[in-house]
Write a structure and sequence with these properties.
The chain is an alpha/beta fold and 328 residues long. It has a single domain, classed as Alpha-Beta Barrel (TIM Barrel), CATH 3.20.20. The protein is 38% helix and 18% strand. The chain contains eleven helices and twelve strands. Strand 8, helix 5 and strand 9 form a beta-alpha-beta unit. The radius of gyration is 20 Å and the shape is globular. The structure holds ligand PBG. The site of ligand PBG has 10 residues, from helix 6.
Length: 328
């Protein structure tokens, strides 16, 4: 019989002891709740693939912001669905578009809520891709034109920033977009607006439900030509380094759960704040399993949020935020 002098179980005996030695915690203020603000509807519309989540109109935004504040949630990220789309995503930088109007409504109702805006054109393009299209060299297929897209992204960021956004978050994965956005923001006197780069964003099957929520499913092909390949993790460091050099203030890894190893590498390599996006498909899996009585939803959500924090995220974008805040 062995009697080790160190017995970890001594510190697991009571809930108070366990709380005392817990290394990782999750607080409501670590959570960011996404809002889908649509101009194409007159009343909130539930998203069938994301139970509990709805598209809302600008009218509901202030009440949502107050609800988040009352739950202790520190921040929201806004996605917009415009009335009209075109092939160049021009509605993305309309100063009267859904996102600028929602930002203004939040800053009016709850000025202290940190407002992040998603900067991308896929919700605004008729073809659903995250950029402007051109014919691929040596082929008849279409592809996203990297450099032609940068100006639209930067203009969108300026429109969001002018409306009062604290942080703009480009999610398109074009090369050079952080630099283009930083340059245009600074040129407009918006140097206090921070950039949260979706630096490490994989071409993932787990975005499925979001594409219903944001009405942005690509009408042909997929996003593998601009989002990262799931097999790559060294490349995540390259992406993150470039974005920091271009002026990103914070980094994001997305999705979260299938990429905790990547999140941990990014945490070890960089000292800026890091977020992780617990995406729509991750949410839908939990909701489906809970609805089928296969798991305890509250416990499962607490555990997965803890694991994302343990891997190195300072904050988590998650559709579970409101439910989790109630149970934390
Ligand atoms: C692109 C964008 C997407 C998500 C956030 N920003 C979709 C995509 O890249 O296809 C996905 C978020 C989620 O699945 O919850 N604007």
């Amino acid at each position: 019989m062995a009697f080790p002098t160190h017995r970890p179980r001594r510190l697991r005996r009571t809930a108070a002891l366990r709380a005392l030695v817990r290394e990782t915690s999750v607080a409501p203020s670590d959570l960011v709740f996404p809002l889908f603000v649509s101009e194409a509807i007159d009343a909130p519309r539930p998203i069938s693939t994301m139970p509990g989540i709805s598209q809302i109109t600008v009218r509901e935004v202030a009440a949502e912001a107050r609800a988040l504040r009352d739950l202790g949630i520190g921040s929201t990220i806004l996605f917009g669905i415009p009335k009209q789309k075109d092939d160049r995503g021009t509605a993305a930088y309309d100063p009267n578009g859904p996102v600028p109007r929602a930002v203004a409504a939040i800053k009016d109702a709850v000025p202290e809520l940190v407002v992040i805006t998603d900067v991308c054109v896929d919700e605004y393009t008729s073809h659903g891709h995250c950029g402007i299209l051109r014919k691929m060299r040596g082929s008849n297929e279409l592809e996203v034109d990297n450099d032609a897209t940068l100006e639209v992204l930067a203009k969108a960021a300026v429109a969001h920033a002018r409306a009062g956004a604290d942080i703009v978050a480009p999610s398109d994965m074009m090369d050079g977009r952080v630099g283009a956005i930083r340059t245009m923001l600074d040129g407009e006197g918006l140097e206090d607006v921070a950039i949260l780069s979706y630096a490490v964003k994989y071409a993932s099957a787990f975005y499925g439900p979001f594409r219903e929520a944001a009405e942005c499913a690509p009408q042909f092909g997929d996003r593998a030509g601009y989002q990262m390949d799931p097999g790559n993790s060294r490349e995540a460091l390259v992406e993150a380094r470039l974005d920091l050099e271009e002026g990103a203030d914070m980094l994001m890894v997305k999705p979260a759960l299938p990429y905790l190893d990547v999140l941990q590498r990014i945490r070890q390599a960089f000292d800026v704040p890091i977020g992780a996006y617990n995406v729509s498909g991750e949410y839908a899996m939990i909701k489906a399993a809970a609805a089928a009585n296969m798991i305890d939803e509250q416990r499962a959500v607490r555990e997965l949020l803890t694991s994302i924090r343990r891997a190195g995220a300072d904050f988590i974008l998650t559709y579970h935020a409101k439910d989790a805040a109630r149970s934390l």
